[in-house]
Amino acid sequence: MLVDVEPSLARSTREEMGLAESTPISQRYEEALESQEIEVVDICTPSHLHADQIIAGLAAGKHIVTEKPTGYDLEECRKLRFYRLKYPEQKVAVAYSLRYYPVNMAVRKLVDEGRIGEPISGQFTWNHPFDPEKREERRARVTGVLADKGGRYIPGSEACGPTHVFDLARYMLGEVEEVFAYKKSFGTYALAVFESGAVCTLTAATSSSWGSRNPTVLCIQGTEGTIHTVMNKSGQYTGTIAERAGETQIEASPETGHGDTTRTANVIDAIKRAEPLICPLEEGIKTSEFLHALWDSHNLGIRVPVHRSAKTG
Predict the structure, then answer these.
(1) Residues 171-187: pLDDT tens digits?
(2) Would residue 63 count as lying in a domain?
(3) Which has more confidence, 30 or 234?
(4) Where in the sequence is the domain holding 167, given as residue range(s)?
(5) Residue 180 is part of a domain; what is its CATH number?
(6) Which pLDDT tens digit goes with each residue over 268-283?
(7) pLDDT band at residue 7 under the 50/70/90 scheme
(8) What is the value of pTM for the model shown?
């Protein structure tokens, strides 16, 4: 079933995806949740709707794939934790794309294996191409809540508000203790101290449409080596590891996109074979709490601890 408040958009999606004309269309997501034939729902709505729809999906017994963020404010984060505990059986995957890139998955494995020793510092960057000359044109075209420019979490930039890099840093290095952030017109720039003691710079921003989008995605310095990944102008994503034995290429597919292939396979494997999710709901919630700390740091002009709570008010 395709659900959209504007039926014509659902019909055009049905045609674009090559789905049968018999595929039902609804303006109410509740109708999809009521269907006994539907086992998995994919939530692609504006951010402020995610929490209630995740909770409704859990209560209806559905497996869920959801766009980020999960938790538009800290109270929603607490509420989602409560319902995750109340309905533990269903799988809930969060679409933080960078986790699903094969190179990033390989980097995570190398870090976990201790190949570069104890992480000391890092640099994480994720840019989206942008033509500054079309800035006002874009602002005029994207209006209202569907623009999804952020609530009480901090969007990355004028281009599209990316938050991927903040989740990527957590994916690689674990929990953040405190942050200091600046939000400027073309990006968000932060310094984060991790509970492990590692200190990292984080950039979620834009790049010129004519330049190199992500010449460095991540660089992790450890006590025993360095991991470095790059994306060239054509979008190929590769990485290297430098350690005692020398410098070698990381063996992984350069696939990027939105990680759709890997994410879809992971969700199916989690449902059918109880494989672990690459980005389960709890991870999405923790990243949202990190995003809220970034927002507070920028607004208050101070270092801010990352607040977490398993209880709801």
Answers:
(1) 999 999 999 998 887 78
(2) no
(3) 30
(4) 98-257
(5) 3.30.360.10
(6) 999 999 999 999 999 9
(7) very high
(8) 0.90
In angstroms, rounded to a whole number, what is the distance separating the alpha carbons of residues 297 and 16? 43
Q: How many domains does the chain have?
A: 1
Say yes or no to pLDDT of 140 above 90: no
Report yes or no: 54 and 92 within 8 Å, Cβ to Cβ. yes
Per DSSP bridges, beta strands 199-208 and 246-249 are unpaired
In this model, does residue 158 exceed pLDDT 60? Answer: no
Residue 146 lies in a domain: yes
Q: For residue 246, is it left (φ>0), alpha (ψ between -120 and 50) or beta? A: left
Q: Assess if residue 152 is contained within a domain.
A: yes
Residue 188 has pLDDT above 90, yes or no: no
Answer whether residue 164 is part of any domain: yes
Per-residue CA distances from 245 to 120, 248, 309, 311 (Å)? 20, 9, 43, 48
